[in-house]
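Q: What would this chain look like folded?
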Amino acid sequence: MSRVYNFSAGPAVLPEEVLKEAAAEMLDYQGTGMSVMEMSHRSKAYQKIIDEAEADLRELMNIPDNYKVLFLQGGAHQQFAMVPMNLMKNGTADYIITGQWAKRAWQEAQKYGRANAIASSADKTFSYIPDCSDLPVSADADYVYICENNTIYGTKFHQLPDTKGKTLVADVSSCFLSEPVDVSKYGIIYGGAQKNIGPAGVVIVIIREDLITEDVLAGTPTMLQYKTHADNGSMYNTPPAYGIYICGKVFKWLKARGGLAAMKEYNEKKAKILYDFLDRSKLFQGTVSKKDRSLMNVPFVTGDKELDAKFVKEAEAAGFVNLKGHRSVGGMRASIYNAMPIEGVEKLVAFMEAFEKENG
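A: My prediction, written as C-alpha cells:
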C-alpha cells in the first residue's frame, strides 16, 4: 500500500526522508552493528546523537546561551505539574485559557498554589484568542502561562501577551519549529514532540537558567525537578533514546530545508491553500476567527453532522486519513504540520471541491 496523506493532530506525519534514513539504520547504526533502539545511552555513539540533536535545535531556534535544553519524558501533560512545582515560589500563577490543554494545565496548577484564569475564550468555544494587551496580571504571579497554538480549536497567539514583566511559560507542542521564535521572550518554552518534531515519548523543555533552582515545592519528586535533568544533561535516568534520535534527524531535515524562516514561508503557503478554499466554499466553513488562525491545525465543518461523517469516511477511502475533529468539537480538522507536503493540501482541497459538487 502506498503512503496516505496523514492529517492526524498527533502522533503525526513525519518526513519521509527521516523515516527512510531511520529504516536504513535500524539494524546497524553507523557501523556500530546495532540499532539505536538497543544502544546504551551511556555509549559514545549515543552521546554524539543527543549532543548533535541539542546543537542543531539551538541553531534552528537561535537559543541563547543562558537557556538549557532538556529532553524529557511524560509528554506535555507532565509539564502541567512540573511547571508549578518548580516555579511557584510565591504560590501564585496566572493562566490564559484558550483551549482544553491550557485549561488542563490551569486545573493541575491549582493543586500546587493559587492559579488564576486571567483571560479566556471559552465563551465562544475557544474559537479566538482573547485580547492580551492589558491583562490583570497578579502582582505576585510567579509566571503567566499560555498554550501558544491550540491543537483542538485551531487558534494561535500571533502576538505574545503582555505579561507586565512576569515570566512567560508557553506550551508550543503543536507549533514547535513551524516558524522562527524569539526564545528570550519566554522563561520556559516546551512541547511534546509527537505533533511536529518526532515520535511520542519525548517532551522538549527550553528553560532559562535562573529558573532552574533547588527551591522547589516541598515533596517535588527528584524526577520532576528541572535541576535534576539540567545537571545531568538529560541523562539522569535512561532518556527516551530512540525518540530523541528521530527528533535529531528531523532537526537536520529542517536545517537542510533552510531553517525556520523557510519553514514558515512553506507553512503559510500550505495553510493559505486550505483557508482560501474554506473562505469561498458554500459547504465547508472554518470555525476560527480569521486573525487567530493556526498554520498547523485547521478545523472546519459542514454544519451537518451526518454530512461531516460522510466526508470523513469518503476522505479516508481516498487516502486522506485522520480528518475527524477532536471528540470535544466534532466536525473535521486537518493538521498540516511541517512534514505534510504541499501536494497533500492541494489534493485534499481538490477532494473537498469534488465532495461539495456532489453534496452541496
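DSSP finds nine helices and 14 strands in the chain.
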